[in-house]
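Q: What structure does this chain adopt?
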Amino acid sequence: MVSPAIATRDGADFGSSHIAPLHRIAVPFPDTVSRPGPHGQPWTGATSLLPPIPNPDTVPADADPVQPVTTAASWRALVAPYLVPSARRALLQLLTTALPYLAVMTGMLIALNYGVLAGMLLLPVGAFLLVRLFIIQHDCGHGSFFKSDWANGLLGRALSLLTLTPYAFWRRDHAMHHATTGNLDRRGDGDVTLLTLAEYRALPLVRRIAYRLYRHPLVMFGVGPAWLILWCLRVPKGSPWHRWRDWLSIVGTDAALAALITTLVLLLGPLPVLLGWLPVMLLSATIGVWLFYVQHQFETAYWESRSRWDFQAAALRGSSFYDLPRVLHWMTGNIGFHHIHHLASRIPNYRLRECHEANPAFQAAPRLTLLQSLRCARLALWDAEHRKLVPFGAARPPER
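A:
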């Protein structure tokens, strides 16, 4: 599996000065993100689910911030019953995901003896189960799967061997995503690189072509996921002295993976590993990138400048409710209830549905069906004037 983000870790330079490297960006809410969490990692919990209500004396006259429907205390009250992890439900989810995954992978290896096509019949099932395992790792990174930080850390690191996602590095990168999503002045933090219509028009031809290639579905959902898991998450960037935690996380994961793959090759041979394990990994990565994409890259998404940006609005308007069939919600660990996850990341995935269904206020979030989500693949630019994502065709000069 893959960390669900396509932007390069050191920033994607398509000409926007706002798309900056991760290590150059300050974290916004000191009480929610930059405050050290367990083991010195960024805190991604729901201690302060909403930003302070802005002082009207400091808000620019032309600003149009989204006013919260209720106070921050009221939002906390809505989500509070769902913040407590359940050891029973967590263990049940882990067992009903890990054991079927191991069974499917074993079945694939056996089926490959009867031909490649026979083995590929189980490919989609294995890939979706691996996505579900990644969501469990994702919850561990938020400290929401178990009550114990120690248990979350242990399971999160163990799952790195299946998802190929360096746990400590991903946790820090993902915390930045939660702190900055929807903020036009802080793009580039573990998200899909996005340019505004004006920025794209101002680019020279070569950079416009590069950006169009980057946003092309064949690159975004084909080449991109493979590049991410086989290169971006395998090679640490930056100074090993200043970013030693990232280096330790990535290199340590790589070493453990090398030992595991070598053992599998010695026991099973190279072809079963190449034809069984690798396709499942690549397909799950593509599913993960797609899920992350449609959760923030839809037509009526939320993007604001720093002065107008609001955490609550970014969560409830800038994150979609991906209304999937029930079986796909199960396979994807309920990550379709993404609006609630961004509002309160300490809610375990196995409690997101009940939180959504019990609170009408959450049901007003942007809803995407499976069919509607397919249309999001053509969206590529943020039209600040009309406040929506638009395809490249909108960048053409108007006809006279």
